[in-house]
Amino acid sequence: MSSDYDYSDDDGDYYDEDDMMSTQDDGSAPSDEEMDMDAFNDDFVPARNVRKVYEVEHESLSQGAIEKLMLADIEHISGIFGVDVGTASLLLRHMNWNKERLIEKYMDNASAVSVAAGISLPSRSPSSSSAAAPIRSQSSSTRSGAAPLGRPSRQRGKQNSRSPTPALTHGGGRSQPPKAEPFVCPICFDDSQTSFLGLSCDHLFCSGCWNAYATTKIREEGEHMIRCMAEDCSLVVPDATVQNILGDDTATWERFQELLVRHFVGSNPNLKYCPYPSCTYTVSCSAAAHKSALTTMVPTVRCGAAVTPPHKFCFGCPIEADHRPVICGVAKMWLKKCRDDSETANWIKSNTKECSKCQSTIEKNGGCNHMTCKKCKHEFCWVCMGPWSEHGTAWYSCNRFDEKEGVDARDAQSKSRASLERYLHYYNRWANHEQSAKLSIELYSKTEKKMEEMQITSELTWIEVQFMKKAVDEVEKCRTTLKWTYAMAYYMDKGNEKELFEDNQRDLEQAVEDLSELLESQIDAEAIPALRQKVTDKTVYVSKRNEIMLEDTAKGFLDGRWGWNVTVDGFE
Amino acid sequence: MDARLRRVNKEITDCKNDKSSNIRIDLIDSSPFHLKGSFPGPQDTPYEGGHFEVDIVIPDSYPFQPVKMKFITKVYHPNVSSASGAICLDILKDAWSPVLTLKSTLISLQSLLCSPEPNDPQDAEVAKHYTTSKRSFDETARYWTQIYAGGPGSRGKVESKEPARDEIAIAGLEKAHVDQFEALGFERSKVIDVLRRLNYRGANVAKIAEDKIVEELLK
After folding, report:
1. Interchain contact, B97 vs A232, CB within 8 Å
2. What SS3 class is residue B77?
3. A188 part of contact set with chain B, CB < 8 Å
């Protein structure tokens, strides 16, 4: 977008954005502030001074920032419930990170939620009921939690997460293994193992098996809820214990953390991963989080990756990076129609006619002009479309073009063709702009060559010939807009609104074609200053027209001004 | 020693030593990871008296991933594919726990034969048969046990010692029905196929029009 030009934001703006973030986050933990700062320190999306009506407010977050958001949620819950962070994390994951629902359910019946989340065992005897109570004796924080990977709190937290027994029991320190005979791990049947681990369910297994089990779960199944290995035991291994089990295998531990983040992002409707390959950014866009919002806006967002061209994508749908001005539902419908119909429609148009009586589509696959409709048995002439009965004996040549019946039949035919023609009208223009936008890459290299030429033949410096590049960029952008205006117009109800829309469309199209032509034209050494002036003027004009187009459409969506000739998802 | 190998060896030995369960595990070839399990059909079921063999493949990440099992013996059961022997059982998929053993899994299979789950079928046609007419289903399952699993009947309870394989009984159909359509000039195998597909059994016989069957036969 135009952000290239208004890059130079002052710091004031920067902090504004920050504040917005933390309010959205219930302003719970004090760490929010630092977190957001961090997020933007490495890569900061230029904030705009004034948000245009067709732009959507969004934030780009780095991997680290997401992890911090996650931690903030965990700490929030841990604070409210008075549980340690490990338990809070399991509770949140169980509830798909829906804090409100978790709070509601937990307040309602804490032990039931804890059991369902795999934190505590279902209470069989009354004595062990309320075992979920997370505030537990601290007796066990003896393990040397080295707290690698910067999650000291979680590591510590897990220790207390369990009922009185420590979350993780080392065989040596526990009275669990029978004293007389050596304990045999029920999985590997190895009696030479010395280190056993078990959750509060007291299902003990050797650490080697735990390690192999967790590794398979994480690596092969992509599972972040690792349950106890015993049959029908629903306890989940807390994160710190997972880390402990994995030991030196930091690659798997990192994978585990990645799975957690993925689950967090996947569960949060405000967040989406940037879909570009190997891009690690996440975009937060609360305005487009709900499906219903997609009827009034096109949430085109860009992530914070510092690349050219920037990673632009639609927050609402995966179909195309930027399908403004048309909303996701309509764009999707249009693409589906094109996929299904365009080729078929073209073929139908060139190879078939409709029966003048029942309107069935008929392909003439050989033989004479005497057609008999398979469906209604109507006999007619393929050439003039009139009824065959009037052809008398002139069976194989039709010279009756002007007969009344023939004319009527062709009228009926053209009416039934109208919808097809209409579709093809929009489709061809849509496809044309798409093609042209693609060709602009070619145009770009041509332009680059021209710019070099210009530097040689005229006095202009490199910076001064940038007008060509800007013009090409603008043309591509506008063609994308134009392309989608055709999809939109196809589905629009007839009326004044549509006429205004099409006026805007025509103005933009005219301007774009003019500029395109200018860019393709031959360059004359002496005409360069004039050309420069012309191109610059046109570029400004085109950009203005594009803005008008986008703005008016976006406003129309907000006001509910656009009517559709089909049912669009989300509209009554 | 490799933990997987040690465990499998132990499981095989344990199973050999345990005479009470009637479960057997044998090697198929020299590999300890491709085995054959077998157990008798449970009592008071149509599978009683049969001897069922199961193909067992132990994956590399066993016991952290479930074993792969399928019936070698053909079984007429809603949760077992009548064609491939594939089994639909939760512990062979997501309910697997590393604590489970080959023996316990085979016991689970045995009890699956006692309690079919027609609502979560592997073989939809068999499941339909089961829900339409339990009595007719039992008969067919018993017949399958007899001819494929060496169940009673092959030992002289029924008329002949080596019963000719009755395609109609295998398909769980009534001879009268098959004869009726065969008399119209259709091939016997085709009639059996169509009637089985349409589940022409029990109460369904009254519901399915003969025209519809003829239509199917003509396809």
Report:
1. yes
2. strand
3. yes
CB contact set of B67 (below 8 Å; sequence gap of 6+): B56, B57, B58, B59, B92, B102, B105
B155 to A125, B50, B73, B150, B166: CA distances (angstroms): 53, 11, 18, 8, 17
Residue A229 distance to chain B (closest CA, Å): 6
Name every residue whose Cβ is closer than 8 Å to that of residue A301 and which is 6 or more positions away in sequence: A56, A58, A283, A285, A312, A313, A314, A315
Taking the C-alpha atoms of residue B181 and residue A103, their distance in angstroms, rounded to an integer, is 66
Cα angle at B129 between B123 and B133, to 5 degrees?
Answer: 155
A325 preceded by a cis bond (ω within 30 of 0) = yes
Give the separation between CA A365 and CA A187, rounded to whole angstroms.
71
Q: Does A246 touch chain B (CB under 8 A)?
A: no
Q: Which of A166, A235, A168 is nearest to A206 (CA)?
A: A168
What pLDDT is recorded for position A234? 86
Nearest residue to A63 (alpha-carbon basis) of A313, A278, A269, A218: A278
User: Where does residue A363 rank: exposed (0-12), middle (13-18), buried (19+ CB within 10 A)?
Assistant: exposed
Q: What's the confidence (pLDDT) of residue A130?
A: 36
- Confirm if A501 and A492 have CB atoms less than 8 A apart: yes
Closest chain A CA to residue B3? A188
CA–CA separation, A287 and A299 (whole Å):
8
Q: Which two tokens stand for residue A119?
A: 């934190």
CB contact under 8 A, A187 and B61: no
Residues of A whose CB is below 8 A from B8: none
Span of A16-25, A223-232, A242-251, A458-467 with lowest mean pLDDT: A16-25
Tell me if A303 sits within 8 A of A461, measured CB to CB. Answer: no
Instruction: Determine, for residues B61 and A220 on separate chains, whether the beta-carbon distance falls below 8 Å.
Output: yes
Distance, in Å, from the CA atom of B20 to the CA atom of A171, rounded to the nearest integer, reads 33
Lowest average pLDDT, out of A210-224, A343-357, A528-542, B141-155, goes to A343-357
Local confidence band at A163 (pLDDT 50, 70, 90 cut-offs): very low
pTM score > 0.90 for this model? no
Measured CA distances, B106 to B4, B22, B53 (Å): 19, 10, 10
**What does the alpha-carbon distance between residue A414 and residue A550 come to, in Å, rounded to a whole number?**
35
Two tokens, residue B31 = 């590999």
Residue B39: the pLDDT is 92
Cα gap A38→A206, rounded to integer Å: 41
Which residues of chain A does B97 touch, with a Cβ-Cβ cutoff of 8 Å? 229-233
**In A8-61, which ranges are continuous DSSP H helix?**
11-24, 31-42
For A469-493, write each residue's pLDDT tens digit: 888 888 888 998 999 999 899 998 8
Give contacts of A203 with chain B, Cβ < 8 Å: 99
A222 and chain B in contact, CB less than 8 A: no
Residues of A in contact with B63 (CB under 8 A): 187
Q: Which long-range contacts (CB under 8 A, 24 or more apart) does A390-396 make?
A: A395/A368, A395/A369, A395/A370, A396/A368, A396/A369
